[in-house]
TrEMBL record:
<dbReference type="Pfam" id="PF09229">
    <property type="entry name" value="Aha1_N"/>
</dbReference>
<dbReference type="GO" id="GO:0001671">
    <property type="term" value="F:ATPase activator activity"/>
</dbReference>
<dbReference type="GO" id="GO:0051087">
    <property type="term" value="F:protein-folding chaperone binding"/>
</dbReference>
<comment type="similarity">
    <text>Belongs to the AHA1 family.</text>
</comment>
<keyword id="KW-0677">Repeat</keyword>
<feature type="region of interest" description="Disordered">
    <location>
        <begin position="115"/>
        <end position="151"/>
    </location>
</feature>
<dbReference type="InterPro" id="IPR047150">
    <property type="entry name" value="SGT"/>
</dbReference>
<dbReference type="InterPro" id="IPR013105">
    <property type="entry name" value="TPR_2"/>
</dbReference>
<feature type="repeat" description="TPR">
    <location>
        <begin position="41"/>
        <end position="74"/>
    </location>
</feature>
<dbReference type="InterPro" id="IPR015310">
    <property type="entry name" value="AHSA1-like_N"/>
</dbReference>
<dbReference type="GO" id="GO:0006620">
    <property type="term" value="P:post-translational protein targeting to endoplasmic reticulum membrane"/>
</dbReference>
<keyword id="KW-0802">TPR repeat</keyword>
<dbReference type="InterPro" id="IPR011990">
    <property type="entry name" value="TPR-like_helical_dom_sf"/>
</dbReference>
<dbReference type="GO" id="GO:0016020">
    <property type="term" value="C:membrane"/>
</dbReference>
<dbReference type="InterPro" id="IPR036338">
    <property type="entry name" value="Aha1"/>
</dbReference>
<feature type="domain" description="Activator of Hsp90 ATPase AHSA1-like N-terminal">
    <location>
        <begin position="218"/>
        <end position="366"/>
    </location>
</feature>
<dbReference type="GO" id="GO:0072380">
    <property type="term" value="C:TRC complex"/>
</dbReference>
Length: 366
């Protein structure tokens, strides 16, 4: 219904705002998603992520716990609950050690957080005693060079004379011993073999040539993902046994994949950081299906919608189904048979396998 669709929309917008650094807005959207649909696992998950970014670890723990209560077999959620609980325990220890003052302050999202005690002020070092200048003369003699003269203002500014030239007070001339210890530190050009060896050992093949430090680098592959997802899903089929009640045998298959940007969340990218790859993708997909060659002489068509095809679903797990439609007027017994062989199993199971295969293709290609 409308509230469930709005919950998915707010959840996706919460993720986008979190990635843009709009933490308070991300938290507000996630909170709205949980209020619109309290059974939507992803809404509670986004709320936990936003609270974690804001430092509200107790609220994050509550949100992740609520999500895990709805999806107890989700391994990723269990990890988030453990991390949030560790953060909460760490805060308690800091309070006990006096490193956390326990003062509660209100942030922009209307929630309360604990503020860290302000650091103790650092005592400033006493000012060095001022050097007195001779009041009877506008010229000051230096101890290093009795014949060099400069004005009183130069002396106050910290100038001194070295080798007959006025320079900074902090100027330092290296002694011969210091020069010997330092040696020749000028840059040296590498020979041909050494330069080639340095070029082959530095950097990473998954990052750009300029990115020698291996910092975060992301490549957008949305266009490739849309094309390969479509080709992987269209044609996926399941043979229905001839003994199936009401409809008899037949072949159920996916005929079309549309709206891969459903809810505005369609994107895919590959990120590389310090030699490790991260595969990021999130799609909402609407599939057109048909069941033909049935023993009863009828053909059936309709749609099914998978709103959250993303990296939080592990291989072998099921993807959420938000909408399932059947064209025309069919009897209750026929609808029950279609639910069994298309919506809840059969064709839907084959679609899940096709999505798992696409994820493997994604990782093998990039």
């Amino acid at each position: 219904d409308r509230d469930k669709d709005l919950a998915v929309l707010r959840s996706n917008r919460s993720l986008a705002r979190l990635q843009m650094g709009q933490l308070a807005e991300s938290r507000s959207d996630a909170q709205s998603a949980t209020e619109l649909d309290g059974t939507y696992v992803k809404g509670h998950w986004r709320l936990g992520q936003a609270c974690t970014a804001l430092g509200e670890h107790q609220d994050a723990l509550d949100a992740f716990t609520a999500a895990l209560a709805l999806d107890g077999s989700n391994k990723a959620l269990k990890k988030e609950v453990d991390k949030a609980r560790a953060k909460v325990e760490q805060e308690k220890l800091l309070v006990m050690e006096g490193k956390f003052d326990g003062v509660v302050a209100e942030n922009g999202a209307g929630k309360t957080t604990k503020a860290v005690a302000a650091p103790k002020p650092v005592k400033s070092a006493p000012a060095p005693p001022k050097k007195s200048a001779s009041s009877g003369s506008d010229v000051v003699k230096t101890a290093a060079d009795g014949d060099s003269e400069f004005s009183k203002s130069d002396h106050v500014r910290g100038y001194k004379v070295v080798g007959g030239k006025k320079t900074s007070y902090f100027h330092h001339e290296q002694t011969e011993e210091e020069k010997r210890l330092i040696g020749d530190i000028r840059p040296k050009q590498l020979s041909g073999d050494a330069a080639a060896a340095a070029a082959t050992t530095s950097g990473d093949q998954d990052t750009s040539a300029w990115n020698k430090a291996g910092t975060w680098e992301e490549k957008d592959v949305t266009s490739w993902a849309v094309d390969t997802l479509t080709s992987s899903l269209v044609g996926t089929s399941h043979s229905v046994s001839s003994s199936a009640a009401e409809i008899g045998g037949g072949t159920a298959k996916v005929t079309k994949a549309t709206k891969l940007d459903l809810h505005g969340g369609g994107h895919a990218s590959v990120a590389a950081v310090r030699g490790k790859k991260r595969y990021i993708y999130e799609f909402g997909i609407r599939l057109d299906w048909e069941l033909e060659d049935c023993s009863n002489g009828e053909d059936y068509r309709g749609t099914m919608t998978l709103p959250d095809v993303d990296g939080t679903v592990e291989a072998g797990d099921e993807y959420d189904l938000s909408e399932f439609t059947v064209e025309g007027n069919v009897g209750n017994k026929v609808r029950m048979a279609l639910n069994k062989h298309v919506r809840d199993g059969g064709l839907r199971a084959e679609v899940h396998k096709a999505l798992d295969g696409w994820v493997e293709l994604f990782k093998a290609t990039y």
